[in-house]
Amino acid sequence: MKLPLANGKYRRPALIVGRVLAFSGVAIWFSYIWLWNHYDSTRPRLPDVAAGRVIVQNTHGHYVYLTAAEEDRLRNIEILAGSLFITGFLIGVLFSQDGFKRKSPKPWEVRRW
Fold first, then answer.
1. Quick one: DSSP state of residue 6?
2. CA separation for the pair 13, 1 (Å, rounded)
3. Contacts 24+ apart (CB under 8 A), 25-28
């Protein structure tokens, strides 16, 4: 399937922007994983209502308690990472000449006789 955007003058810059967005999404996802593990290793294991630590974070049976701000921070980073990756991926598909096609043929598709 060829799209009209694939042949425009903005094709190359759009592909670069799409890759930057996708790689940024992956990098932010790794920071999300790091922050999740940081909270898992540094937050208390018992709820503290006075401090506002009442939101449970479960990591394979290891429970820690977060504040609403910490939980919101995790959720926002997760949404940002996913949005950046999906946007970059869609830009790459819309502006690519091949769409989802592979550039090289599969080994069994090459005729050698």
1. G
2. 21
3. 25/80, 25/81, 25/82, 25/83, 25/84, 25/85, 25/86, 25/87, 25/88, 26/81, 26/85, 28/77, 28/80, 28/81, 28/84
* Phi (first) and psi of residue 53, to 5 degrees: -90, 85
- Between 72 and 6, name the one with better pLDDT: 72
Q: Which residues of 80-95 are buried (b: 16+ CB within 10 A; e: fewer)?
A: bbeebbebbeebbbbb
| Cα angle value 89/13/77 (rounded, 5°) | 40
Prediction pTM value: 0.80
21 burial (CB, 10 Å; 0-12 / 13-18 / 19+) is: buried
Q: Which residues pair with 86 in a beta bridge?
A: none
Cα of 90 vs its chain's centroid, Å: 13
Q: What is the pLDDT of residues 33-81, one digit of tens each?
A: 999 999 999 999 999 999 999 999 999 999 999 999 999 999 999 999 9
DSSP, collapsed to helix, strand or coil, labels residue 15 as helix
